[in-house]
Amino acid sequence: MRIERLGQDKIRIFLTFDDLSERGIQREDMWQEIPKVHDLFTEMMDQAYTEVGFDATGPLAVEVFALPAQGMVVIVTKGKYDHPHMGGGASYEDELPDEVYEMEVTLETSDTILYSFDDFEVLIEAAHVLHHMLFDIGSLYKYNGKWILRMEPEQLEEGKVPGLIAVLAEFGEATSVTPAMLEEYGSLIMGDHAVEQICSHFKRQS
């Protein structure tokens, strides 16, 4: 579980699938009103207070983004119930006791695959490996000093996705950035066929 403070009243929490499985939670459980999901939210808020001093008293707007290769990104905002809901999300009032947390939860899911790379040379190496599997895919962004490779589900053959993710995980790391954040705050470097372009312009080191 990774917690980052985005502002005075906003934090971002990144949960890997390992974080969820350790607590006996499946991805689809986040859509359920069940005690172990309540326990997870309580644990997140406790850890947020300990690590970044985020006081979760009062009304909270909670946005949960499920990403296929990364896990869950949870954005928590204090005192805002009137934030615009993003298209496609289910919204419900969390029934936690008022004296604990009062939350409105918005759930979103995305099939976009996003992986970040600290070093462009490592990204070049990953692109050359990926090129043998799927060459005409991907867009490349620069965000917070990292290179982010983005792949949409319609670009991928379903049977090749596990192998693709295995390569990405070997060279890069799952990122807590959502597609919407990348589009709003990232810089688009290569809009189409990023893997092919990288391989065409840059040679492997080894």
TrEMBL record:
Superkingdom of origin: Bacteria
Originating species: Paenibacillus apis
NCBIfam families associated with the record: PRK02899.1
Protein family membership: Belongs to the MecA family.
Full protein name: Adapter protein MecA 2
One Pfam entry name: MecA
Cited InterPro entries: MecA_C_sf (IPR038471), Neg-reg_MecA (IPR008681)
